[in-house]
Design goal:
The structure is a single chain. The chain starts with a strand and ends with a helix. With 272 residues, the chain is an alpha/beta fold. The longest helix is centred in the middle third of the chain and has 18 residues. Strand 3, helix 8 and strand 4 form a beta-alpha-beta unit.
């Protein structure tokens, strides 16, 4: 049974460490396979690795929210609003809202979450802001190519990868026994949900299970600030099973922690 893993943000580091896309892909797949409990050297899990296609280089600047593109700053403010920040945090002239937004995140979730938020909004903005973006098209083409070549039974998609996988499976349908989304931001209003692009003739099907997918399972940590809103089936009736889990605040968005959950193992066991 072939499984394809579609990663989320913060994965360019695999390329930095490995030096090649092939090496990065192999390292990511090995890490995910280990988290699933597959034996070392097991090749059932392969990765669709697209991180370099969203990496804009040094021009992105350090983890300073005011150096984000205006569109990414807007996404950050919208996201913080969805997390429950009061209006006084998300309203104001100039760059005041984005400064207040990251300050609110740091106060509520810690400095690590603040840095994560800036990186998340940078990568999400690069992918979702323009439906006709060459970055968006190239990422989907990479995933499409992997799916066509490997012909998996299962796709496991984490974080932004769930958005990539969902759109790709609408634009380029394939037969899958199982789609598992982990820590998915698919339902985030304004930030993600309203920007989804499913292809010509499919816009009215937003929220449905992608064609060709027999079962869709979503898993979200109760403290995951990316997996918002937590009741994803409320926006996506195509989800067949939804599990809320508790990974712990520090690990609440890590792919490996999600992959190690018994709920993932149980869903995979149904197919064997």
């Amino acid at each position: 049974m072939v499984i394809i893993g579609v990663h989320g943000i913060r994965c360019y580091r695999y390329f930095t460490q490995a030096g090649t896309v092939a090496g990065a892909t192999e390292a990511l797949a090995a890490e995910w396979a280990a988290a699933l409990g597959l034996p070392a050297g097991h090749d059932a899990l392969r990765a669709a690795y697209y991180a370099p296609l969203l990496h804009l280089g040094a021009t992105q600047g350090p983890d300073d929210p005011e150096l984000l593109p205006r569109t990414a700053q807007g996404l950050l403010v919208e996201w913080v609003s969805a997390l429950g920040a009061p209006a006084e945090v998300t309203m104001g002239p100039g760059t005041l809202p984005v400064r207040q937004a990251v300050g609110w995140i740091a106060e509520r979730f810690g400095e690590t979450a603040k840095r994560f938020a800036v990186l998340f909004c940078r990568e999400v903005d690069t992918y979702v802001t323009d439906p006709a973006s060459p970055h968006r098209a190239s990422v989907q083409e990479e995933v499409r190519g992997v799916l066509a070549r490997e012909q998996p039974r299962v796709v496991i998609a984490h974080s932004l990868g769930s958005v990539v996988a969902y759109e790709t499976l609408w634009h380029h349908p394939v037969e899958l026994d199982l789609l598992i989304t982990l820590g998915s931001p698919l339902g985030l209003p304004n930030v993600i949900f309203d920007r989804l692009s499913l292809g010509e003739g499919n816009e009215g099907r937003k929220g449905l299970r992608p064609p060709g997918v027999r079962r869709w399972v979503n898993i979200a940590d109760v403290g995951d600030i990316v997996a918002q809103p937590r009741d994803l089936p409320g926006r996506f009736p195509g989800i067949d099973a939804h599990h809320e889990v508790a990974l712990g605040l520090v690990a609440s968005h890590r792919a490996t922690q999600y992959l190690a959950r018994t709920e993932v193992a149980a869903e995979l066991a149904r197919l064997t």
